[in-house]
Specification:
The complex is a heterodimer. By secondary structure, chain A is an alpha/beta fold. Chain A has 12 helices and 7 strands. The complex binds thiamine diphosphate and magnesium ion. Thiamine diphosphate sits at the interface of chains A and B.
């Protein structure tokens, strides 16, 4: 993660690169889902959220993710090669094959981890913010949660904690409309998370989660607030998931028929950003640049998975290592 | 007899009891669109299957309160790992209400959850947490290993007046087995002798019953006859059945998917060491997962989970099948 130095590549272009990498990665995971062990929850449709939020983070900041964590990891700067290896449980994976899709973590990139428990990562992000506060740095932390996870006690308690201690944390609620088969309309019961934040004394914002530039603006304001010691913000990103809850399991009978296809046609975050960047004509050859980014991502992802799918000798001694620092 | 799966067997008991007992309600995340044992029950009993938000503390606690006031909730926790989110409600509230009120409150509550390794779900979706619950007075803990027991044990769970953790092994859901069509109940606290033998007692929990039977087959080839015992309920636990068997065989192996320390295997081994020491003619062996979280890597997960080869080795290490030492 890095805050862009002056004169660096235009942020929109950079976000597009990240989003193209996430899309390529997730499309490939989707194709390989039957072969990849365990469960995978794809981020397709929500790319602008991770890319927009992480575009305003820098080294020293942290993020905590969810079960749908590949996009956050890529936006944080994790290597897709090490992630692909992890998905196959290889010993050269980013977590030595011990974590898998639902537990990709990489502290070197500030990534505290995907999480198997809904809402489970949110208090961890508060903890990273506490470290920054105690040490007197101006680092911040971002807590990602889904709409369903946002109902967890741990998340609501985190709002209380963050306000009381004025923690430099940004809560990002990715409201993709569903928690598995339960619609947000039901489980948020006519409220929204940003409105709830107000009840906790925390400023809240709602943005279009398909619009990377809008997400970036909202995240920028929230992160600036945290960095400057003015405490937490909650940003609700209205996003869409184009796939089922997880691959190979969800027939999406709870969705109006054709919804996912319609969203893909009308609210694709990559198409939206592409339109913005090419219309702005900055750089002049933006279209070609974006095409190149997509091609490069696809090639890199293809190579990463080709390699990860090769048979590997498991390191069975690893079974009981890493349980303790010392025991 | 007709054959159905473990999931269907559990469903049968639920549907049968819901027909008999109007106080039964099913609660859980996406309960009305669930797969597995509760699939489609909403259509049969409209209004009695309730979708919950992702708020385990709230809905498990509410189930405890509802149980105390006249309902008989059956809560689906999905993965047993999620029980940790609402541990207060299970351990401090559900388990203790009767005792703290001097018997004034009953808590007829069933908490269903799937457990165990095998689905490549990693450290937070694969645990075997039954020892935690067995440790807590006031909770009953059930671990069916086959469809017929699953149906009978669920029928009993739904007529208990105490909170029951009904732990369904995720790798058994599609296991077929012969299951009687008529309603019946399998009592709690009665182990079943799954296979008779004279050389070594093998106590196995949940999916490990199959593993123990496989080991018993292999050992039989060399004349070692294992007696495989499935406790079926871990709390209450049928000590007497284990003691009877050990008195006969003189040897004991306990096979459990949970971790070794303060676990079910250690508990059974300790009880036998204390209460029928005289019958033992060799060391007791425990076959468990290691003292480590469940790894994601399939190769590591397979190595983590006890298998038949480990059970064979453990039975041999007890000295079972060797001639008894001549009396001096
Ligand atoms: C504590 C806990 N309860 C239940 C689950 C099962 N579960 C996994 S994902 C999920 C839905 C999460 O919905 P949301 O937070 O909206 O995230 P999304 O899947 O939409 O990204 C549920 C219920 C879980 N992982 N953790
Ligand atoms: Mg959601």
């Amino acid at each position: 993660m890095d805050r862009l130095p002056a004169g660096a590549e235009e942020p929109g272009l950079r976000m597009y690169r990240v989003m193209a990498m996430i899309r390529a990665f997730e499309e490939r995971v989707g194709e390989l889902a039957e072969e990849i062990p365990g469960a995978v929850h794809l981020y397709i449709g929500q790319e602008a959220v991770a890319a927009g939020v992480c575009s305003v983070l820098r080294d020293g900041d942290h993020l905590a993710s969810t079960h749908r964590g590949h996009g956050h990891a890529i936006a944080a700067g994790c290597e897709v090669e090490a992630m692909a290896a992890e998905l196959y449980g290889r010993s050269d994976g980013v977590c030595s094959g011990k974590g898998g899709s639902m537990h990709i973590a990489d502290l070197g990139h500030g990534m505290l981890g995907a999480n198997g428990l809904a809402g489970g990562g949110v208090p961890l992000a508060c903890g990273a913010a506490l470290t920054a506060r105690q040490r007197g740095t101006d680092d911040v932390a971002v807590a990602f949660t889904g709409d369903g996870g946002a109902n967890q006690g741990a998340v609501l308690e985190s709002l209380v904690l963050a306000r009381m201690l004025d923690l430099p944390v940004v809560f990002v609620v990715e409201n993709n409309g569903y928690a598995q088969a339960t619609s947000a309309a039901r489980h948020f019961s006519g409220t929204d998370m940003s409105a709830r934040a107000a009840g906790f004394g925390i400023p809240g914002a709602v943005v279009d989660g398909a619009d990377a530039l809008a997400v970036r603006d909202a995240a920028s304001e929230a992160v600036d607030r945290a960095r400057s010691g003015r405490g937490p913000t909650l940003v609700e990103c209205r996003a869409q998931r184009f796939h089922g809850h997880m691959e190979g399991w969800d027939n999406q009978a709870y969705r109006p028929s054709g919804e996912a296809e319609r969203l893909r046609a009308e609210a694709d975050p990559l198409a939206l950003l592409r339109r913005r960047l090419t219309e702005a004509g900055q750089p002049a050859d933006a279209g070609a640049e974006l095409d190149r980014a997509e091609k490069e991502s696809a090639a890199r992802v293809q190579a990463a998975f080709d390699r990860a799918a090769q048979p590997a000798e498991p390191l069975l001694t690893a079974l009981t290592t890493d349980v303790y620092a010392a025991h | 007899m007709r054959t159905i799966t473990y999931a269907q067997a559990i469903r049968e008991a639920l549907v049968e009891r819901m027909g008999q007992d109007e106080s039964i309600v099913l609660m859980g995340e996406d309960a009305t669109s669930a797969w597995g044992p509760t699939q489609g029950i909403e259509q049969e009993f409209p209004g009695r299957v309730l979708d919950m938000p992702i708020t385990e503390s709230a809905f498990v606690g509410a189930a405890v309160g509802a149980a105390a006031t006249g309902l008989r909730p059956v809560v689906d926790l999905l993965f047993v790992d999620f029980a940790t989110v609402c541990f207060d409600q299970i351990v401090n509230q559900a388990a203790k209400l009767r005792y703290m009120t001097g018997g004034g409150v009953r808590v007829p509550l069933v908490l269903r959850a799937m457990w165990g390794t095998g689905m490549r779900r990693g450290a937070q979706h694969s645990q075997a947490l039954h020892p935690l619950f067995v440790h807590v007075p006031g909770l009953k803990v059930v671990t069916p290993s086959n469809p017929a027991d699953a149906k009978g044990l669920m029928a009993t769970a739904l007529q208990e007046d105490d909170p029951v953790l009904f732990l369904e092994h995720k790798m058994l859901y599609f296991t077929p087995g012969e299951v009687p069509e008529e309603p019946y109940a399998v009592p709690f606290g009665e182990a079943s002798v799954v296979r008779e033998g004279s050389s070594c007692t093998v106590v196995a929990v949940g999916r490990m019953v199959q593993v123990a039977l496989e080991a018993a087959d292999r050992l039989a080839e060399s004349g070692v006859r294992c007696e495989v015992l499935d406790p079926r309920t871990l709390s209450p636990f049928d000590n007497a059945a284990v003691y009877r068997s050990v008195e006969k065989t003189g040897h004991l192996v306990v096979v459990d998917e949970a971790h070794p320390r303060c676990g079910l295997a250690a508990d059974v081994a300790a009880q036998v060491a204390q209460d029928c020491h005289g019958a033992l003619r060799g060391p007791v062996r425990m076959v468990t997962a290691p003292h480590a979280p469940v790894p994601f890597s399939p190769a590591l997960e397979d190595a983590f989970t006890p298998d038949a080869a480990e059970v064979v080795e453990a039975v041999r290490a007890t000295g079972a099948g060797e001639p008894a030492p001549a009396l001096a």
